[in-house]
Design goal:
This protein starts with 10 loop residues before the first strand and ends with a helix. Helices cover 29% and strands 32% of the residues. The protein has a three-stranded antiparallel β-sheet. It has 75 residues and is of the alpha+beta class.
């Protein structure tokens, strides 16, 4: 599913992960982080693809929003 982002400009944060054979709660944690990000001001959407390598792209309205997300202690 593609994120429904507004017309640019906006910012993207790209997160990659190496998926182990045993996920050990990875999906649950990924879902929790997505739900947490949705509560942040400036969050625009998220896209993710996972096989052996996981790539997640989250979209934000500005750099200040990204900085606040990075500082979120639950994140």
């Amino acid at each position: 599913m593609f994120a429904n982002t507004p017309k640019p400009p906006y910012y993207a944060v790209i997160f990659t992960s190496d998926k182990a054979e045993e996920e050990n709660g990875y999906e649950e944690m990924a879902h929790k982080m997505t739900e947490l990000a949705k509560e942040e001001d400036g969050f625009l959407g998220i896209e993710s693809a996972k096989e052996n390598l996981g790539i997640t792209v989250s979209y934000w309205k500005d750099l200040e929003s990204i900085k606040k997300w990075k500082m979120n202690t639950d994140h």
